[in-house]
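hey so u asked for the seq, here:
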Amino acid sequence: MTGGARDRRVNRAIEERRDRVNEAIDDELPVEPPERLYEAARYLLEAGGKRLRPAMLLMAGEAIADVPPGSTDYRSFPDRQGGSVDLMVAAVSVEIVHLFTLIHDDIMDEDDLRRGVPAVHRAYDTKTAILAGDTLYSKAFEVMLRTGAPDDRSVRALDSLARTCTEICEGQAMDIGFEEGDAVGVSEYLSMIERKTAVLYGAAAALPAVLLGTDESVRRALYQYGVDVGRGFQIQDDVLDLVMSSDAIGKRRGSDLIEGKQTLITVHAREAGVDVDGLVEGAAEAVSDADIEAAVATLDEAGSIDYARETAREFVESGKAELEVLPDNDAKDLLADVADYLIERDH
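ran it, structure tokens below
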């Protein structure tokens, strides 16, 4: 299959699941009193988003159950013991966690835009945004309890979600520390993005194995698939922040450089002798598009952007290898295609 055909297949599969996830979100996270709180909590949902993590969860369930993609009711998904589980609410729970992290990230980073619209704390206010994020965090666990899985599996799913949320916070703390401390190395950076970004992909891929009562070896392999792919995804985000337009990525181009964030690109460039701290200087409003262009050219000349792309590819290939534990079916192939798509996308 050519790259174009693969991307069309992946986009179609993600869109089909996104539409069903969006319908489920309306059911599981309705706007109720106090309306302003829930409107703020749902604000980024209305702004769009691909729903990559819940789509991955649903695809992993299809691969485990060896059913044709999209052929089974996710609300009554067959488990290994002849029962059924509501995988859709698990998918919604994972997306709700993702939204909670976006709202709080934007507050901490003082970002103005998210998904091409004002960030929640700009559209509402900081206090409301904090409460909206906190509400989403607690709602994720409430929703996860509705899968209908046996008690032992439900407890394991909740434990996985709780551990994932803790690791995300640890990763965010590491990221903040990187901004305030000395230069970091590649291994430290990769450890940070594993916690901040990749573990939620790991949880998304592995939760169906937990809820459907699959062998532990399958759960571990799917978790590692998600983590590896998630690291590749984050590194691709670092690249897109520099090489794509503000309109394409839904926020200001070069915002990571302007904010002094550590990325795999800047870590590599610093080790190559580039004065990363001097690439972009001054207040954000004083940094011009020409300044960003010049900084990107310097990083490109150092080979740092190509290094990041190559590293992302290595992670994806490692993740795809984990899929060997699954039966050969269309859903397994789709998970492999999604992995490739995530590091070749342009937004």
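The chain has a mean pLDDT of 93. The chain has one domain: 3-344.
lmk if thats what u needed
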